[in-house]
Amino acid sequence: MSRVRYRWSLIALLSFAAAAGCATNVDVRAVASGSSPVRALAGETPPPKKVVIFYSSIGMGHLSAARSIEKNIKARDSNVEVVLKDIRDFAPKFRDKIEEKAFWYLVKNHPNTFDAVYRSAMEKGNRALSLEKVPQMYNPEKVLDFIKSENADVVLSTHYGSAQVVGDLRDADKLGDIRTGWLHTDYVEGYFPRISNRMDMSFLPHSALEEIWKRAGVNESKFVTTGMPLNPTLFEPVDREAFMKAKGLDPNVKTLVLASGGEGVGDFPAIVKSIASEVKEPFQIVAVCAKNEQHLKNLNALKSSLPKNIHLDVLGFTPSDDLLNFIKVADVYITKSGGLSPTEGFAIMKPMLLLDVYGGHERDNLKFFEKLGMASGIKDQTQTGKDVVKLLADPARQAKMIESQSKFRESLDIGKVTDFVFSGKNTYRMAPDDYGREGGTAIDLSKEMLEKLAHDTPNDMEILLSYAKNQRDLAFDMKENPFGHIAIKVGDDVYTINHLAVPGEDKATLVKISLDEYLFSTQSWDVHSEMQSTTGLAYARDNIGIRVSGLDPKQKQAMLDEVAKVNAAWEKGTLGYNNKTNNCADVTERILNAGGFVAGPEYGPKGKITMPLDVFDRHLTKLSRTAKYEVELVNYARIPDSRSIYRYSKFPVSLGQIRRSLVNMLGLRKSDPLETRATKRIAAYAGDQTVHYENIDHSSEGDAKIEKAKAQEDFDRRLKDVREQEKNLETMRTDAARDGKTSTDLQKKLDDGLAGLTPAQRKLVGTDREKELPAGARKKLADLRASILDIDGVQAKNQAALDKLVQDELDLLVDEAMNTKKWAYVRLKKRFAPKDTAVFDKLSKAIDAEYEKYVGARSLYGQPKDQTRISAYRDFFAKVKEFHAKVDTMYESEKIVEKRGVLKAISESFANVFRKVRQVVALSGDIARVLAVVLLPESFTKIFARTEADVKSLPLTKAIKRFGRNAAATERITVVVKGKETIPKIKNAKTINLFTPTHRQAMNDLMVMAEFIPDDSLIFAVPEYFAPGPLAKALAKTDGFVAVGSSRDPISNAMAQINAGKSQNILIYPEGSVSIGLQETRPTRTKFTTGLIKELRSQGYTVNLIPVVYGNTATPLTQNGVSSEVLTAEIKAPLNDAQVALLADTDDLTLGRHIRGIWLDNLPTDERQLAGKLKVDVMRDETEKFVYGTPEWRKRCQGLFTSP
């Protein structure tokens, strides 16, 4: 189609739309046209005759709340008529049924999907320019007809959907003097404070929400905490013994009630099975399945297979009073984390466990309840039994729950809802006839709210896009300008073109006014000017602003100079307004270009005629992708009850964006995507004539500046402390070396002290027959034991100091990374569209989850389950690295190209690992191959092709050795192992060589191990660290592998293989010493080595303990990758049987400290390392290189943590 034909087609389509009177959206202001009911003056409260309460029949909580309110109203005055109405009656029946089925299907089968849908809906509700643009399924015209037909004095809602449609009617001035109230039946924020702004009163379920509502900009006079309306019988006592006997229950047996609403959501059979498997004493379970027939059937079938100590009562639909009595007599109550069910439990004050089965609002409820200590969540329904046993065994925890619930119960005051019905104020104020008109009444609090906005979003410049103003609600009105308007604020002043200005009569063509005047003034600016084109735009139009900070003074001055040039040319008559060549968009872009902000067609549409929307879009894209500037969008909403002749605000169209314009004009979507990107909003609501400031994303640059300063101060303090710890530890180690109190010194004493003993005499050391030794030998042993105690005391202090240093340094690095992620994420959310930040939303949640895992597992340092902490830490940094790598792609001026050899993100390696596992399983069933491949970077996969034929026939150790050597050859790595000659030769069947190497990094260690471990070695390890799920189980059963961890008995397994003659060499992998990023040497396992040695010696074995030190195999912060072209290891002189006996018999920790001490003595201390551990400043540099990939990361993260 030619351009001419295309243009005429567009004009024809627009003309058709105009003639047809197409609305852009179904506008509630068009509903039931005609005069509004006679309105009482604001504040007057006529006595109520009829109250309508809207509820929703999805779930029973909303109806139950409505009935409770009805009872309270009737108790106050029985003459008041109360009508309960299901809001779903006003939805299209077919759509309603589909949505109900979809809802229950999602929450029961795909709660995480529902959670994502819910959060998306809340995000849209928060970001929508007005709540009228938030999709809702109820017909406002029918709702209004119902309210009028009932002649209601008060309309209450117990569901946010009904409150939203009532609010739409209120904003459209259709409810007259009818008072409106909304009961919030969940404990979440969502976009719900916006609903409260449209109500006379909102009733909150908990006082903790009050601060949230205030922060969201809701006037304190518009909400009150009442708690949830509850069945009055809930507060009546029950005769526990009589009730339980009547129901066939034993009053002397612990009882649990399981009930989760009318649908019986949750996996009841799994919950009951789990409880039955964990509880050993007599126990009673009352399972209330309600309408869930499947649960009823499955649980009845399960009864016969339960242990004898478990009594299960399975109930279907149960009357409310009976259910409440069951809860009252129970010892534990399990329910879902909705609104009503937990509230009933809190009011009864019972120890509670809550199911996280819905996701969405119920997941947020659960977090709220846990934070307040009123209940605990069940994360895994198949592990419910453990949660129950743990709670019942902890009276203090139960008491704390009851105490928190008691405070909540005391705050319940549903009478406040009834008070509102009878004496609450109608807050709706009729706007005066001159409200928003030229020379008329202006809105209140505009300057104050703009000051709040300025505090949260300080800026040097703002580009202001104004919508098209219309007198008629038409898709396209030929009488109006559909293209909107654009202006620019530089510093504190807005510069907007006055298209009517006349030289010599008016002040300027580029008008200089304040933002307050631009939006909210009712005064004309000049002789020839049009209000709502130069001033007071918010009375007729919606507006969006791009706020930008980070400009240098020269840029601002250049833009101001350009303003002066434009006005000077206008005064001379050489430049005048022209809607094709010098319109508002042309002038605004000219000013932007002068400041160095040039956004060409590569950033968006740029036609022959400059359009306001095109200029706005191009510069938004350009600015968002320029990291040096802070960018944030603000909505300035149209004042809904303005008396301006321009009643309708339309999103601007553009000749350069035909499709988008048509979609918006024809109402094919509620909102343009641009409207949902704002993170701050200046709003107004019908009936109160005041400006509201709404902080959508709860961020504040003003507050953040203070928060960052405090965080920086805390970080500097902690960094200083870590540096001081390093100095102190270095001094402690120097003093130990000077005083001869290192592990190396102790080893020499052991060697010298036992040198005179014969092999036969050494075997008596540490046994009951030691007293048979000569007096001189016994004296030497006594002296050695004294030396062991003395030096071990020094080592205990030194190693404890090292452990604290490692933990504090790691915490510092993790918190630093967490904060940089936090601020980088906030920046992204401000400047990019939600669809563009979806990947960051997921990554941010994943990072937060790993952080929580790390914090929760921090105390496991050096313990058998320390891998939990290690995995969380590694996964945390892998995700942070991935996050920042993706951040780099968002900013065009800071794209980072990784050089060859820079390590890939661990998250990428994970995908490769599991792909390779599948490949290997297809090639061979040999578990050794699976073990090896999980440890590999991608380049090692080819090695299997060369060794496939012979690997199948090799024992595990030989397979690992073959693989390690092939891997080293492939990567051209040279492995140098010193001290192999010190490995004792095994001369009889009762001698064991026990190798204890420092484990640093899996792939590198494998290469080193291949050069010194004997072919028949037993390898002690936790299989789950090497392979996922089923593969780990198979590995645990393989000969040559001794599985450690969980409920396994590795010592018995090892002794069985040793006694069967399968091996006399044992490699403990790892015995402590896992590098988790700092390259530190971790403590040995508290009891494992000592326990194994004691068992070996008790069965007559001689044990040679051989420490092995790996020199340079670690790569910080990574799991895979080669750190050097040469890998080194040193096998230290072995501890003979007598030395092992002396150390092992001193203390369970002494032997482990001695092994670790030998490692530490042989690891380097220099300007970068302290006993092999990277120093904090070196580690921060390594973190920067690995995680952030660029020295610019601190700048991207807003300068946080830049201590020298």
Walk me through the structure.
With 1204 residues, this protein is an alpha/beta fold. Among the domains are: 40-201, Rossmann fold (3-Layer(aba) Sandwich); 232-411, Glycogen Phosphorylase B (Rossmann fold), CATH 3.40.50; 446-657 and 681-698, no CATH class; 925-1171, no CATH class. The strands form six sheets. The chain has an eight-stranded mixed β-sheet, with helices on both faces. Helix 32 packs antiparallel against helix 33. The longest helix has 57 residues, at 775-831. Residues 1-27, 29-43, 893-953, 1072-1076, 1117-1122 and 1191-1204 have low confidence and may be disordered.
How does the overall form come out from the CA principal axes?
Answer: globular
Q: What is the number of E strands?
A: 31
Terminal CA distance: 64 Å
Instruction: Provide the β-strand percentage band.
Output: 5-15%
Biggest beta sheet summary: 8 strands, mixed
Helical/strand content category? alpha/beta
As a whole number of angstroms, the C-alpha radius of gyration is: 37 Å
Number of helices: 41
Q: What is the mean predicted local confidence, pLDDT?
A: 84
User: Level of helix content?
Assistant: 40-55%
List unreliable stretches of 5+ residues: 1-27, 29-43, 893-953, 1072-1076, 1117-1122, 1191-1204
Major beta sheet, strand line-up: 17-16-15-13-18-19-21-22
Q: What layout of secondary structure does this protein have?
A:
Elements: H1 3-20, E1 50-55, H2 61-76, E2 81-86, H3 93-109, H4 111-127, H5 140-150, E3 154-157, H6 160-171, E4 179-183, H7 192-196, E5 201-204, H8 208-215, E6 223-225, H9 240-246, E7 254-259, H10 268-278, E8 283-288, H11 293-302, E9 310-315, H12 320-329, E10 332-336, H13 340-348, E11 352-355, H14 360-372, E12 376-378, H15 384-392, H16 395-411, H17 415-423, H18 446-456, E13 461-466, E14 468-470, E15 485-490, E16 493-497, E17 510-514, H19 515-520, E18 543-549, H20 553-572, H21 584-594, H22 612-624, E19 630-636, E20 648-650, H23 658-665, E21 680-684, E22 691-695, H24 701-738, H25 743-754, H26 759-762, H27 775-831, H28 834-857, H29 866-890, H30 906-923, H31 927-934, H32 943-951, H33 956-970, E23 974-978, E24 991-997, H34 1002-1009, E25 1018-1021, H35 1029-1036, E26 1041-1043, H36 1050-1059, E27 1065-1068, H37 1088-1098, E28 1102-1110, E29 1126-1131, H38 1137-1146, H39 1150-1161, E30 1169-1170, E31 1173-1174, H40 1176-1188, H41 1193-1196
Helix pairs in contact: 2-17, 3-4, 9-12, 10-15, 20-21, 24-27, 25-27, 25-39, 27-28, 27-29, 27-39, 28-29, 30-31, 31-33, 32-33, 33-34
